[in-house]
Amino acid sequence: MKTKLTSFLMIVFMLVAFAAIVQAAPAGKVTNLEGRADLTMPGKPARALSIGDAVSVGDIIRTKSGSKLEVTWIDGGIIRLSESSRLKVTEYTLGKTTRTTILSLFRGKVQNVVTATAKLFGQQDGSK
């Protein structure tokens, strides 16, 4: 019984550690910034953003008044936030056959530029 409990706890620990590693991987980076913006990571205070800064799952991006920000995702997609916007990167996964992006816009405006996915997943243009 004690061995089973120890094995179970080790598996749970490894799953939690793996999830933390996956979430820590950058989903994109700031590629344009006009004005001021900051980023809040889970459990950490907000910090000012600069061009080239990484954006990861769980991060909350805020643009200030009169500011604009652009993030380019690792798949080539682009998202642009207008002034006084607040957006959370809820989920970002890029696999061999799937791509999932879930963003939560709390306030403000956002423009999303999506890249073609056919070539990304090894399909011919126009095929399913």
Give an overview of the whole structure.
By secondary structure, this protein is of the alpha+beta class. It has a domain at 27-113. Helices cover 18% and strands 42% of the residues. It contains one helix and ten strands; from the N terminus they run H-E-E-E-E-E-E-E-E-E-E. The protein has one helix at 2-24, and strands spanning 26-34, 37-40, 47-48, 54-56, 60-63, 68-73, 78-81, 86-94, 99-107, 110-113. A five-stranded antiparallel sheet has the order 4-1-6-7-10, with no helix packed on it. A five-stranded antiparallel sheet has the order 3-2-5-8-9, with no helix packed on it. A hairpin with a 4-residue loop joins strand 8 and strand 9. The longest helix has 23 residues, at 2-24. The chain is elongated. The mean pLDDT is 83.
Category by helix and strand content: alpha+beta
Task: Report the principal-axis shape.
Answer: elongated
Q: How many strands appear in the DSSP assignment?
A: 10
Query: Could you tell me the radius of gyration in angstroms?
Result: 18 Å
Mean pLDDT: 83
Within the largest sheet, what's the order of strands?
A: 4-1-6-7-10
Q: Note poorly predicted spans.
A: none
- What fraction strand? 35-45%
Please write the string of helix (H) and strand (E) elements.
HEEEEEEEEEE
User: What does the largest sheet look like?
Assistant: 5 strands, antiparallel
Distance from first to last alpha carbon: 50 Å
| SS field, number of helical segments | 1
Q: Could you estimate the helical fraction of the residues in percent?
A: 10-25%
Task: Outline the secondary-structure elements.
Blueprint: H1 2-24, E1 26-34, E2 37-40, E3 47-48, E4 54-56, E5 60-63, E6 68-73, E7 78-81, E8 86-94, E9 99-107, E10 110-113
Antiparallel strand pairs: 1-4, 1-6, 2-3, 2-5, 5-8, 6-7, 7-10, 8-9
